[in-house]
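Appendix B, Record 12. Input sequence as logged:
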Amino acid sequence: LLSLAFAGVLALSACGSRTASPEASSGAADSDGAGSGTWPRTVTDAQGEVTIEAQPAKVVSTSPSVTGTLLAIDAPVVSSAAASPSPLTDDKGFFSQWAKVADRRGVKSLYGNLQFNMEAIVAAEPDLVVVSSSGADSVADHYAEISARFPTVVVDYSKQDWRKLSAQLGEATGLESKAKKVTADFDQYVRDAKAKIKPPDGDVSIVSFNGAGGQNQAVGKREGPHAKLLEAMGFTVVDAPLGLETRRQKRSDFAFVTYENLAKAIKGKSVFLISASDKTVAGFLADPLLANLPAVQSKRVHSLGPTSFRIDYYSGRQIVDAVVKSFS
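Logged structural output:
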């Protein structure tokens, strides 16, 4: 899972007016004339209100965690920051769930390994730059530098799911109807999948399993996006018992627990593993600390796929496909 350390910088943009807003911390979006195609328009982002003078024709994403949502609403993305290449990415560092879409649309790598490069942004000549205020791919500490040159929208994907994020980005890019359509299409995809499967009896747990050496073991909460997606498909997700979390600042999506307490935290009769391959499932089933779990004894442990660490339109569909494969 990407880290979700919050970072934020308040500044005035030289490319458009910005004012602090009491609604800014919620990540909710608002706009003047949104949906009517009128410009300029003012949108509310994670830092306040920003006015965008004209509909963007060239968008740069400094957050690969957000790029998938931009592509889903057909935003004119010309380049995106890239993560370090790994089994979850292509050779450029684009996340595999949307890398082929980006290639078809000619999206270039802005810079690699999440190493911020202002010169690359300047060279791209964007009409809009999208910055994340949270996560390992946040460049919020460079916000003043970016916004001094280009209109900049700051989003917080740790506090909203991809649906709300797509609505917010849709307003910023003038693609509200696209954002609504992609959400409706996804909902229909989930309904069609639900009709194809038979969920198991009993509750299910969602687990990010990192083995005996992993410091971060996580159990999904019912308020989290993974749980909401599974419940939309007919499953009943159960939370970890209270009192096992290791973090002082609790999150709404996951409870982080120690490896030693993982068995106590898993209460479902079935388990779904996040960011999991067949090898991950085999390791979970073979772990001696988990041997007495009902899900292990009955071998009711299933992978949500390698791209399921963060849900956007593309990885969400892949999660749905993984569930259908296991339960159709």
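The chain has eleven helices and 13 strands.
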